[in-house]
Each structure stands twice: as structure tokens, then as C-alpha cells.
Fold this sequence. Notes:
Layout: H1 7-21, H2 26-55, H3 57-73, H4 77-85, H5 91-94
Keywords: Cell membrane, Membrane, Protein transport, Translocation, Transmembrane, Transmembrane helix, Transport
Family: Belongs to the TatB family.
Region (Disordered): 92-127
Amino acid sequence: MFSNVGWGEMLILVIAGLVILGPERLPGAIRWTAGALRQVRDYVGGATRQLREELGPEFDELREPLSELNQLRGMTPRAAITKHLLDGDDSIFTGDIDAPAEKPVSRATPTPKTPPPADTPFDPDAT
């Protein structure tokens, strides 16, 4: 829950708590906060268990989009390009290209425009 809070931030929170609440009330406030967090965690766990029991396998279907969002959240630009544009082939980034080099095209001869294959979607406004 507090994975993004480091020791420096915790120290600042404790010092702010000492200044705002004072040394007498700070331990009670920490105990109250810890108890409230524990109670919220128990409520969320109970609600999750109840949903899992009532929905059964449909519960996993509800969690599927969330797991996809978590995967996208941790994706770097390089991973996104590799996955979506290069179909997982990262040889362009690693330099392990085994394909033979193509013959260079002369600028004097225009390249004839050929229509894309029938199975490939073509959008003339996008080009």
C-alpha cells in the first residue's frame, strides 16, 4: 500500500505528526490509523471473497481487463513498439537482423504504386 513512500517521507510525516498532534497524542493517532487501515483491509478482503463466491468464474472475467491495464501501465515505449508494431520481434533493437539487405532503389525510376493485398485493411485518408 505504501510502496511509493520512502523512509524520508515517513520521517517527514512523523515530524509533522509530532508538530501537529504533539508527543502525547501521536502514539494514539498512529494506533487509530493502523486499526482503521486494518479494518478497511478486512472489509475489502471480505467483499472480494463474497464476490468470488457469488460470481464464481465470472469474477475472473471481471478481473481480466484490470490485469490488462496493469500490464499496459508497466509497459515502456520500446516494449509497446515491439509488442504491437513488430509482433514481439525485437531484432530491430538488438541488431540481430538475419534478413538479406534489399537492393537500393534508384531515385531516377519512380516506384509503381501497387494496391495492398485484399486481406490488409486500407484507409486512404490515413496515408
